[in-house]
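Hi there, hope your week has been kind to you so far. No rush at all, and the record is pasted right below.
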Amino acid sequence: MSRVLADLIDGLRRLPGLGPRSAQRLAHHLLLRDRQAAVRLARALEQAASRLVHCSECNTFSETPVCPRCSDPARDPSLLCVVEMPADLEALEAARVFSGSYYVLMGRLSPLDGIGPQELGIDRLLQRIARPELREVVLATNFTAEGEATAVWLAETIAAAAPHLKVSRLARGVPVGGELEYADPATLAYAWHDRRSFGG
């Protein structure tokens, strides 16, 4: 096999969810069927790697030291939503339910993977919650075992550092359009415990 091709396959293997065979198929597809897409992808990756930095406010990827969202004076500075990844931030923005500020952890606590508070930049988050205008921190980590552990740890850490702040967590339950018979027991239990009065 060509060394150039081997390097391409090895590079693709580093992407999550791609094993050796999937990486090989993808490399062959790009070279055989869509070389223009391969060139565009290479350019986009090069630009992203060289131009994107972390926003000094919310820690998401940005082309400027402070991202446009954090520079927006219309955002509510009294609310801070903590998410795991930039994709989670974008999902909340698409739902148009939150108009405050964000902090992106760029991961979640996972001792088995060597990811602790230092790797998540918790010091920077604690600096954010020290701002006098802040009133509430919404923990919007995912509902996985690691996401739950991260939320619990963050709630305890924030309560110790800033006891005056309200700390809340996204509610869990049956998704819109979901049917009870197909929901797993844990989801049903959370939906039951997080139930609210009809009409608000």
